[in-house]
Amino acid sequence: MPIFAVHYVYSESTVADRDVHRPEHRAWLAGLLESGALLSSGPYPDGSGALLIFRSEDAGQLKDLLAQDPFARENLIEQARAVEWVPVFGAFAS
């Protein structure tokens, strides 16, 4: 199954609202981790965004999944970029 790297970009104007919705966002991520759809995720240390690594059948299915993110539903993501990724070495390589 393809792997996708998803890059979220956040803006300073959404910090307070992200703090409010972070528990729901992280619960959503935890469920995806448990199901195997999410491989890893975490914020950038400077607060500018986050990297999420997913397994998904295709880009369309991933787009539908990302729309369910509480941060997305609350319009707290300035920009999201999802690209298929083919790891050759390391933990995510086949």
In a nutshell, what does this entry contain?
This protein has 94 residues and is of the alpha+beta class. It is built from three helices and four strands. The chain is 35% helix and 29% strand.
Structural class by SSE content: alpha+beta
User: How far apart, in Å, are the first and last alpha carbons?
Assistant: 10 Å
Spatial strand arrangement across the major sheet? 2-3-1-4
The residue fraction in helices comes out at 25-40%
Mean pLDDT: 97
- As residue ranges, the low-confidence spans are none
**SSE ordering:** EHEEHHE
Number of helices: 3
Q: Judging from the principal axes of the Cα atoms, what is the shape?
A: globular
Q: Name the assembly state.
A: single chain
